[in-house]
Amino acid sequence: MNQEDKKIKARPWLHKWLRSTIDTSVIDQEELVAELRQSQKNNIISSESLGMLEGVLQVDNLQVRDIMIPRANIGFLHLNDSYHDILKTVMKAGHSRFPVIDENKDDVEGILLAKDLLKYVGDEESFDIDDIIRPPSFVPESQKLNTLLSQFRNSRNHMAMVVDEYSGTSGLVTIEDVLEQIVGDIDDEHDDVDEKKNILAQSDGRYTIQASTELEEFNEYFNCDMPLDQYDTLGGLISQKAGKIPRQGEEVKLNKFSFKILRSDGRRIQLVEVRRLEKL
C-alpha cells in the first residue's frame, strides 16, 4: 500500500464523500477542479468550501516566492537595539515575531517573540537579546507550499526566513501566509486595513497585487492607462479580459502586463502576480 492509499484509508469519510460527490474517473487536477465547481453549482458544496478546496490544490503548485513578504517590507530588529527601542518597534508593528539581524539584512541571527519581552518589564537593565532570541529557520524561494506547511507543522515554527540562491535574505514567510492561500485573508485585531499595501514589489521585478486594488491606483503606480470605463478594480478587469473567473495558476495578458492568478475562490480573483511583458 503506497502513502496516498494509507492517507485515504485513514480518512474513510473523505473517500466516501469524494466518491459520492464527484466523478472519480477524473485523471488530473484540472478535471478535479471542474468537478468540484460543478458540485458547487449543483449546491452539493458551498462556494466557501469550493474556495478552500481549490486553495488546498493550489498549495501544491505555489512556491514560497509567490507569497513571501519581500525583504524591503520586513521589520527587522538589530542585535544592539536597546530594550526600549525594541519595545517601541514591537508596539508600533503589532506583530508577534521579528527577525533579528547583526550588521546587515543577510545576517539573520534569530527570531524574537514579542511575548519574551515581558520578563524584563521593571527589570530592563538585565535585558540581553541573546538570551531570548530563537534559532531562525531558513527555506529556499523555490520550496513548494505544501512542503513548507509540513515543515511548519513538524517543527512548530510559525515563521521562516526565505533565502535566494546566494543564501541572501529575500523575504520571510509565516504559517498564516500559507493558510491564507486556503481560507483567504486572515485579519486580526492588529491589522490596519487602511495601511494594508495593495501592491508589493518583489526583488526580481515581479509584483504581488491584491485583486481588489483600484485601477486608478494601479495606473498611478505603474504609470499606465488601464481602461476605467467598465470596471473599478484590477480583478474585475482581468475577469472581463479572460471572459470568466480565472483559476489559480492561469495567466492573462493585458496592456503590456502579464497577470498570473495566485488566489481565486471561484467567485472572484483575490491575489495576482504581475510582470511587465517588456521585461520578460
Protein architecture, described:
Belongs to the UPF0053 family. Plays a role in the transport of magnesium and cobalt ions. It comes from Cocleimonas flava. Keywords: CBS domain, Cobalt, Magnesium, Repeat, Transport. GO terms for molecular function: flavin adenine dinucleotide binding. The chain has 280 residues and is an alpha+beta fold. The protein folds into three domains: 3-45, no CATH class; 69-137, CBS domain Like; 197-280, 2-Layer Sandwich (Uridine Diphospho-n-acetylenolpyruvylglucosamine Reductase, domain 3), CATH 3.30.465.10. The chain contains ten helices and twelve strands. It has helices spanning 3-10, 12-21, 29-41, 47-59, 64-67, 83-93, 145-155, 175-183, 215-222, 234-242; strands at residues 69-70, 77-78, 97-101, 108-113, 138-140, 159-163, 169-174, 199-201, 207-210, 251-254, 257-264, 269-276. The strands form three sheets. Strands 8-9-12-11-10 form a five-stranded antiparallel beta sheet, sandwiched between helices. The chain has a four-stranded mixed beta sheet with strand order 1-7-6-5. Strands 2-3-4 form a three-stranded mixed beta sheet. β2 (77-78), α6 and β3 (97-101) form a beta-alpha-beta unit. α4 packs across α8 (175-183). The protein starts with a helix and ends with a strand. The relative contact order is 0.12.
